[in-house]
Amino acid sequence: MGIVQKDAFRTMLISYVGIVLGYLNKGILFLIILTTEQIGLVNLIISVGTLFAQFANMGTIYTTWKFLPFFKNEEKRHHGFLPLILLIVFAGIILCTTLALVFRPQIESMYLEHSAMFVSYYLWFLPIGISYVLFLVLEMYLRSFYKNIVPVIAYEIVLRIAVTVLLGLIYFKLISFDLFVILQSLLYLIPTAILLVYLYQLGELNLRPSSIKISKRFRTILIQFSAFNYINTLGVVLVGSMDVIMIAQMVGLEGTGVYTTVIFLTSALQVPYKSILRVSSPLVSDYWKFREFGKMQALYQKVSSVGLVIGLGLFCGIWNNIEFLFSFLKPEFQAGIWVFFFLMMGRLVDMYFGINGSIFTTSKKYRYDILFTIFLIVAVFLLNLIFIPKWGIAGAAISTSLALIVYNVGRILFVWFAFKIHPFHKNQFIVIGLGLLSLFAGWITSDLVDNKYLEFVFQSVLVLFLFFIPIYWFKLEPETVNYFNKGTAFIGSKIGKQKA
């Protein structure tokens, strides 16, 4: 776990800088500068663009993840793996763009009643989608070489700083909202351009189709794997995008604005886990290559345990202070409190079950994963049709979490029976007990302090003493303790250098 710890800690720090910038943008400036309807519109365009990217990648992201380790050869330029993948992606971009234009009248008609503003900006999801799909492919390519830092900086920091600049321009009335939407869509070209320059500096920017030296047999295998994982890729993103798109269609842009703001908050809590996952996932492919099941089992348990501690601890800290945190938002955002709760239930299970998806999709039994993904897509869609009319945006959160929980349980059981590995150990259940204790203590002491600022401090200290300190003191989760010790040592060394 040395590589994982080092890179994960760095990417986590960078991601948290990005989260601060993102909170400045979405948590403060969006709320000050834009109306709730405008927030909904901007986030809807981004969601549709993200969905476009997942359709257009044609399954190449997981293909790069699984097969690039087998083709790595600097002298042979990795057998032309990158230009082959990019050719497939460009075909996907052309196909999806054509479909978006051909079916534009039908798509726009779905939003005329509740989200008519989206129709006026329909085409501006295309720059986002095209830029993002290229970014995803190049990022995964770099991940396979354990080059994680620059992609995180490009997307989490540079892009968000650029958005902050745009928000400043609209605040001082130097640009209109129309121009803001257009320029923000074009900003997504920046991270992709940064990765292209970085690959060039590394000597890895090979774009020549003539360098493709992969045999027809392997090309067939790559295409088959891409085809199966195409739907799997869609399933993961549809869970994150379908609810936003359906809320805009069935509720309106104001509800979309509230929902997407809460999604940002839940995503912020996943940053440490995603940093670990970003570095751990490529190791799974290497372990499959050399059939190192013992190492895979150890990685599986460690990532799962760290995900549980991070996810549950941060959820307890936020939920015990949820009314205080939402008191700073506009009144219409109060409906987002239970959206946060239900979304986090699904996210917690996803974090706890760790890298089961990485193990599944890079194994020889990857074809079976399509069944789980089809279930996920259908379940989210049908549950949204039932729950959104009944409970609005909270119904969408319930739908997403229910489907995500069943999906993860099914996957983890399959991995368990198929490969005889699982992520569980007894200390995890003690951690869950501490989390429940923290939530219960927060509930019974919620009215103990009248001043809301003092209550925030009290509830935060409560979670610290009932959850985090016992885990650290009794070393219930050694990997998390190790991360914490190395993190504090790293920060201490940097402070010491500055003082010197």
> What series of H and E elements makes up the topology?
HHHHHHHHHHHHHHHHHHHHHH
**Beta strand %:** under 5%
- What profile does the largest beta sheet have? none
Number of strands: 0
User: Helicity, in percent?
Assistant: over 70%
Taken together, the total number of domains comes to 1
Short description:
This protein is mainly alpha-helical. The protein has helices at residues 2-33, 36-56, 60-71, 81-102, 104-109, 116-120, 125-143, 149-171, 177-187, 189-202, 216-250, 253-269, 271-290, 293-319, 322-326, 336-352, 356-361, 369-391, 393-419, 426-444, 452-473, 478-499.
Describe this structure in words.
By secondary structure, the protein is mostly helical. It has one domain (2-492). Helices cover 81% and strands 0% of the residues. The protein is built from 22 helices and no strands. The chain has helices at 2-33, 36-56, 60-71, 81-102, 104-109, 116-120, 125-143, 149-171, 177-187, 189-202, 216-250, 253-269, 271-290, 293-319, 322-326, 336-352, 356-361, 369-391, 393-419, 426-444, 452-473, 478-499. The two termini are 31 Å apart. 47% of the residues are buried. The model has no long low-confidence stretch (mean pLDDT 85).
Question: How is the topology of this model organized?
Answer:
Elements: H1 2-33, H2 36-56, H3 60-71, H4 81-102, H5 104-109, H6 116-120, H7 125-143, H8 149-171, H9 177-187, H10 189-202, H11 216-250, H12 253-269, H13 271-290, H14 293-319, H15 322-326, H16 336-352, H17 356-361, H18 369-391, H19 393-419, H20 426-444, H21 452-473, H22 478-499
Helix pairs in contact: 1-8, 1-12, 1-13, 2-4, 2-7, 2-11, 2-12, 3-4, 3-7, 3-11, 3-13, 4-7, 7-10, 8-9, 8-10, 11-12, 11-18, 11-19, 12-16, 13-14, 14-16, 14-20, 14-21, 16-19, 18-19, 20-21
